[in-house]
Amino acid sequence: MYEGEYSADMKNGYGEFFWISGNKYKGSYVDDQRNGYGEMFWIDGSIYKGFWVDGIQQGLGIMIFPDGFKKVGFFDKNIYKENIETIQQFDEFMI
After folding, report:
1. Range of 26's domain?
2. Residue 95 in 3-state DSSP?
3. What is the pTM of this model?
4. Whole-angstrom distance, CA of residue 15 vs CA of residue 24
5. Residue 65 in 3-state DSSP?
6. What span, in angstroms and rounded, lies between the C-alpha atoms of 70 and 84?
7. What is the CATH number of the domain that holds 54?
8. Each residue's pLDDT tens digit in the chain (95 positions)?
9. pLDDT reported for residue 93
10. Where are the alpha helices (DSSP H) in the chain?
């Protein structure tokens, strides 16, 4: 179920999507796809907060696991690739 902004009969702008499984997403949509900043919550307690491109975790983000372990860094096609170790790395991403 989707609650949020629509444009051109598609999810566009801020919205929240709730799956029947109990998973949920809160964040930005462009043309029916998760794009920009968003937060995904899985029923197992995992949380992703970060950037999306065409429905895929892409760019800067944080993955928080049910046991509290966190991975902060860069994601590429839903895969955690690189840890952020310096402010310069963060700044390079944001420019």
Report:
1. 2-94
2. coil
3. 0.86
4. 11
5. coil
6. 12
7. 2.20.110.10
8. 999 999 999 999 999 999 999 999 999 999 999 999 999 999 999 999 999 999 999 999 999 999 999 999 999 999 998 787 766 766 666 55
9. 60
10. 87-94
**From CA 47, how far away is CA 27, in angstroms rounded?**
13
Q: What are phi and psi of 36, to 5 degrees?
A: 90, -155
- Single-letter residue type at 30: V
Q: Which of 44, 76, 80, 77 is nearest to 63 (CA)?
A: 80
Measured from the Cβ of residue 50, the count of other Cβ atoms closer than 10 Å reads: 20
User: What is the structure's pLDDT at 80?
Assistant: 93
Side chain identity at 88, as an amino acid letter? Q
The residues near 46 (Cβ < 8 Å, ≥ 6 apart) are 63, 64, 65, 66
How far is the C-alpha of 1 from the C-alpha of 70, rounded, in Å?
29
* Joined tokens for residue 38: 């968003």
- In the chain, how many domains are there? 1
**Which pLDDT does position 21 carry in this prediction?**
97
